[in-house]
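Extended Data, panel c. Modelled sequence:
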Amino acid sequence: MKTVIYVGKYERQFSQDLLLKPKAMLEIGDLPILWHIMKHYASYGFKDFVLLCSYKPYAVKEFFFNYSLHHCDVTIDLKNRVFTPLKNDTEDFKVTIIDVGKNTNTGGALKKAQKIIGNEPFMFTYGDGLSDIDLNLLLSHHLRHKKMITISAISASQKYGMIDFNDNGSVIGFKEKEMTDSIVNGGFMVCNSDVFDLIDDDPSTIFEKEPMVTAVACHQVTAYHHHGFWRAVDNYEDLDELNKLYESNKAPWNCY
């Protein structure tokens, strides 16, 4: 099963750092947020990634192309220009990187991955959110409820659009954003391939609006309620907090 990650657009609040790279490439420890998300998926056996890049995709390409060079001991034959890793213990990821176009939103970006994903179900999340969510339980929930989309319902005090779901886990609508504690869509979704029928080719399409609202109206969205850790990186304070957790070996998402 492929895991699709929306790496994201330019975001003004990180303007100094994002002159060179997307937000998902900002570092926790000495590795990008994106890498931490991928390691979490890989720890559950999901190692085939499709990265949807709309802002500075070359930074993502260069990171993964040079990953072995920067993360293992090497012998470099300068005369013959031969690079030889001394041991092959880097990540066994398969990474497909798609340049979806500058400022392309989530729906428009996902639509561009349709040919690569094919007719199989897939994981879908965002490149700025970390969690200790059990991905096996998430997938089991999706298969059991047999809906087009499974979203992760997260308790959060941050300002996000809320979701409303019934006792059976079926999503029945969305609410306006509030500053109080609420249940939100935290990403970490599972989608069936027929979700592409709900997305048009307009790059400005936002997956969480028309496509998701249509799926809800058709009773095709279920929510897996995750009660553990989740945090999205929306500002430097979030990034600093995650770095402190990681450096103190208290990072809940660090199960690898």
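The chain is about 25% helix and 30% strand. This feature is highlighted in the accompanying rendering.
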